[in-house]
Write a structure and sequence with these properties.
36% of the residues lie in helices and 10% in strands. By secondary structure, it is α+β, with helices and mostly antiparallel strands. Among the domains are: 250 residues, Catalase core domain (Catalase HpII,  Chain A, domain 1); 222 residues, no CATH class. The strands form five sheets. Strands 1, 2, 3, 4, 5, 6, 7, 8 and 9 form a nine-stranded antiparallel β-sheet that branches. It has a two-stranded antiparallel ribbon with strand order 10-13. The longest helix is centred in the C-terminal third of the chain and has 28 residues. The protein is elongated and about 105 Å long. GO terms for molecular function: catalase activity. Its cofactor is Ca(2+).
């Protein structure tokens, strides 16, 4: 085991050694072990037949009381006086006594026993003390502990337990270690227990005792702790509980809390839980007395207290920094106990892969890997291509989800456990917190972007080749190339979605800037309206997240939440969200004559308004109206529902409807193949009901047999976040046309022709009000967006004004991607399990493009990611490249699968029956027609609302092409 030293406010470096060489490396090990513990919990639940998850250990309680007291000794030694440990200090305590097994069984079965004590010092400070009825652990460290738990998972019969101890355990840890662990367990369980009140309980792991350093503690029966234990009737499966009930009806139960002080690493090790701290070496010192007062445990009041205690989660890390746990097993206990408790309380989930899927996974994946060297997935027959995609996604989930959040390492003490706000169980928070109730900050505003590929930070290549040259030679639109299978609503939609998903914070005026030199002969550039002509392009730098050590500055926080929560409509914080609602806490969103209200600058007052233009305005207007329609329907259906509940339910409904539209309508429109149409509908609805699909998924990926909304949340081994690579593949600015023809939908007459700059920023709102929402949707519905390819970047975005800057957005795209450490195109391909290109001709055969690529880049390894993605020849029907699609297929399901409001809490109890029906029957067409019913005859019959609409011919109506 590698070793390192870290200092804490109380010096522990001389006692603790971190596995893997650092707290951060050890944390990764513990996260894996926590997931394994959750699997043990599932196995125990299945074996026991219990309707709910039990604790991983100490499942069966014999006693739970809330009225105990812990009083420190009047003569507490001076060296041990610190924090809450003061002479005569007296605190209320909650006590739980239990068997140690992870499954409930008869009290007479061989087992250890345990005590858990929560000492409540103040409302802001508590200390959990946990001990077991044997002085040492069977496990030296957390790895051994989890290996033993896995070996014994689900074992109920003597034969199953013997198989676990003598076969599974040696295979996991080796014969010598297994023998030592087995001897410890057998010695511990050989002891006959007649009363839990007369047992001694040892912490078995060390804790810090402030300046006194490490100690182990134990609870031993006090001399005045009552009579000796009688000989119980061992045929009674609950005799220990009965004995405690009878004992407490007559007497108090008392334990002395004793501590053993650290001597040296050899005789009193901190890291090795399997070594006893012997009394002869470090005699126990009495520091306090725990008293459970005489009481009647058969009353309703006592029963209620016991039920409350069973809902508690004890964790030795519920303490202060001065008394924090020490050692490998203890450090692992924080994350492992939190994971186990979260699963027990149904706020964290484990989905086990069936054995048949695991067995067939390796050979079938190998077959597809070999096959794809000859035939890519999109050229296979339909059924084979669908299974190929299933296995491609499994590979990507296993290898391309990288957690970038700075972990809590070493673990920190928590003075009190934090309870979940009950309102957040049924409502999305304003800022994305508590979507995962077990990890409140996961995916919230400010959470870091993850990675699908290991970042490559190359400051020496930030300006190589010059990004202005790249833009002008390879990206600039020379003539508009349309995407004829789509309409401009598809372009507006994806920007509407991206604004919900991702936003990097930029430094404000006077903050850090990026300077890009113009190439020789490249002219000059004005970086602000009316500013001087310069030989550099200058724009605001992104604000990064501070990283420890010498790590490169390539971690960035998302100023939007990572969840699919409609934050572009509702806002990403409580103040914004409330500002957008009708006065006096009304449920509806504010609208001005059916349009988004505007501020003094003419910019709308909405959740996210950067880069505003008429297409975004149409989407925001449409879904603000949709929210209000849902509110009205809920109010009519459920008249007793409060306005606040109506608002939050409507937000759930609208956000889920947006997610569904993107999944089953927008995506199949831009990836127009039969395989993707089936695949995306499978994500939401489940697979087609034919025997071949059903059999194939049952054998190979049974979790896909239902739509994702019918499954449990699954983060696939990495905390949920959107990624920098995801941001890169969603750079789809070529979809935006430079020119727009606005027409009225009754007679098809042209109203006016405008450029993008005429309908962006403050001009967008006056234009949409003049044109009307129905005419705007019609005009965009009959027009094509640009194709996502080289030489098709909108010129209007190459001279784009925002927040006092004039920027070339194509240059910004290139620079941002480089500076954020996203690998260049060839490494990007390879990281997504595609063959590297060896020459420029492998990317394109178009002569002019090929010549420019060779002129701009010295080697294929220099090609910018965005350029390579645009240059690829996509699969037939695809609107973007197969390489980009690989990030897409990974993240498209992840956005649904990780979100509890789109999985386990996508149910009538949360959404209401009306809300569920609204989502299930709704789609983009129904949204448009609810608010613009006059467009019904113009929308595609057999395609989504993002396919080209039917244009009305002015000649057919006896009119000219111009209105008036």
């Amino acid at each position: 085991m590698a070793e390192t030293e870290r200092h804490t406010p109380y010096e522990t470096a001389q006692y603790e050694r971190y596995e893997g060489g650092s707290p951060e490396a050890e944390r990764l090990v513990f996260e894996h072990l926590a997931r394994e513990i959750m699997k043990v919990q599932v196995a125990n639940r299945r074996a026991s037949g219990a309707p709910d998850y039990e604790r991983v250990v100490h499942a069966k309680a014999a006693l739970g009381v809330e009225n105990a007291r812990l009083r420190f000794a009047d003569d507490l030694p001076a060296a041990l006086r610190s924090g809450f440990a003061q002479p005569g200090a007296d605190y209320p305590a909650t006590v739980r006594l239990s068997n140690a097994s992870g499954m409930r069984g008869p009290d007479g079965a061989p087992d250890l026993h345990g005590i858990a004590v929560r000492v409540q010092v103040t409302g802001d400070e508590s200390h959990d003390l946990m001990a077991t009825s044997f002085p040492v652990s069977h496990a030296r460290d957390a790895r051994e502990f989890v290996a033993f738990a896995k070996a014994m998972a689900g074992a109920r019969t003597p034969l199953q337990k013997a198989f676990g101890l003598f076969v599974k355990l040696p295979l996991a840890v080796g014969l010598g270690t297994a023998n030592r662990m087995r001897r410890n367990v057998q010695a511990a369980t050989r002891h006959t227990v007649n009363s839990l009140a007369r047992e001694t309980y040892w912490s078995r792991g060390a804790i810090l005792w402030a300046e006194a350093g490490p100690v182990r503690y134990l609870f031993r029966p006090a001399a005045s702790g009552g009579s000796a234990a009688p000989h119980p009737d061992r045929r009674d499966p609950d005799f220990l509980r009965g004995e405690l009930t009878r004992r407490l009806s007559r007497d108090d139960i008392a334990f002395d809390l004793c501590v053993q002080r650290w001597v040296d690493e050899r005789r009193t090790p901190v890291e090795d839980g399997s070594v006893e701290w012997e009394d002869a070496i470090t005699p126990p010192i009495v520091v306090a007395r725990l008293t459970i007062p005489r009481q009647d445990l058969t009353t309703a009041e006592a029963g209620s207290a016991e039920r409350r205690i069973e809902e508690l989660s004890f964790n030795p890390w519920y303490t202060t920094d001065a008394f924090r746990p020490l050692g490998n097993i203890n450090r692992a206990r924080k994350i492992a106990y939190q994971a186990s408790s979260a699963q027990r309380h149904d706020i964290r989930f484990t989905t086990l892969e069936p054995a048949r899927n695991r067995v067939l996974d390796v050979p079938v994946a190998y077959v597809f890997r070999v096959l794809n060297r000859v035939v890519p997935w999109h050229r296979l027959p339909l059924e084979a291509s669908l299974l190929n995609l299933v296995f491609l996604r499994k590979v990507l989930r296993r290898l391309n989800l990288i957690d970038t959040e700075v972990p809590e390492a070493p673990p920190k003490a928590e003075p009190v456990p934090v309870a979940v706000d009950e309102r957040l169980r049924t409502s999305r928070s304003y800022d994305g917190t508590y979507n995962d109730l077990s990890a409140p900050q996961m995916g919230a505003v400010g959470a870091a972007f993850g990675r699908n590929l290991k970042p490559q930070y190359r400051p020496d290549l930030f300006d190589t080749p010059n990004p202005v040259t790249v833009s002008r030679q390879l990206l600039t639109r020379e003539s508009f190339v349309p995407a004829t299978s789509l309409n401009v609503l598809a372009a507006a939609w994806i920007q509407f979605q991206v604004h919900d998903w991702v936003n990097h914070r930029r430094y404000g005026e006077g903050g850090k800037t990026v300077e890009v030199p113009l190439p020789p002969g490249g002219g000059t550039w004005s970086n602000s309206p009316g500013g001087p002509q310069e030989n550099v392009m200058r724009f605001a730098e992104n604000e990064g997240v501070e990283l420890p050590g010498d790590q490169p500055p390539i971690l960035f926080g998302n100023t939007a939440s990572h969840w699919w929560d409609g934050s572009e409509v509702y806002g990403g914080d409580e103040a914004t969200a409330k500002q957008l609602r009708e006065p006096e806490g009304g449920a509806r969103l504010l609208l001005d004559g059916g349009h988004i209200p505007i501020d003094r600058s003419g910019i709308p007052i909405t959740g996210f308004k950067d880069n505003w233009w008429m297409g975004l305005s149409a989407m925001h207007t449409l879904f603000a109206r949709e929210h209000n329609a849902v509110c009205d329907a809920l109010r009519a259906e459920y008249p007793s529902m409060s306005e606040d509940r109506i608002y939050h339910t409507a937000r759930l409904v609208v956000s889920a409807l947006i997610a569904k539209i993107h999944t089953v309508e927008w995506t199949p429109a831009i990836l127009a193949t039969k395989a993707l149409d089936i695949g995306m509908h499978t994500n939401w609805e489940g697979p087609p009901r034919n025997w071949l699909n059903q059999l194939g998924l049952w054998l190979l990926e049974s979790h896909a047999l239902t739509g994702i909304p019918k499954t449990l949340p699954d983060h696939h081994g990495a905390p949920y976040s959107l990624t920098e690579d995801f941001v890169t593949v969603y750079r789809m600015h070529p979809l935006i046309p430079d020119d727009y023809e606005l027409r009225e939908h009754h007679f098809g007459q042209r109203l006016e022709t405008v450029g993008f700059n005429d309908i962006q920023g403050g001009a967008a709102e006056s234009q949409i009000r003049k044109t009307g929402l129905a005419n705007t949707l019609y005009s965009f519905g009959i027009a094509h967006p640009g194709a996502i390819t080289l030489h098709n970047y909108p010129k209007s975005l190459q001279h784009f004004q925002r927040e006092g800057e004039i920027i070339d957005l194509s240059v910004v795209d290139l620079v941002r991607t480089r500076r954020r450490g996203v690998p260049r195109y060839n490494d990007f391909r390879a990281g997504l399990h595609k063959d590297r290109i060896r020459r420029f001709e492998d990317l394109t055969r178009e002569p002019e493009t090929l010549a420019r690529l060779k002129e701009v880049y010295r080697t294929v390894d220099e090609i910018d990611t965005v350029v390579g993605l645009f240059a690829e020849n996509p699969p037939t029907g695809f609107g973007f490249s197969d390489t980009a699609f690989r990030v897409f297929i990974l993240m498209a399901t992840r956005r649904l699968q990780s979100d509890r409001f789109l999985t386990v809490d996508y149910r009538p109890e949360i959404y209401t029956p009306l809300g569920m029906d609204w989502v299930e029957k709704g789609g983009m067409k129904s949204v448009v027609l609810r608010h613009c019913p006059e467009l019904a005859s113009l929308m595609p019959r057999e395609a989504s609302a993002f396919a080209p609409w039917r244009p009305v011919s002015p000649a057919a109506n006896g009119g000219s092409d111009d209105a008036g």
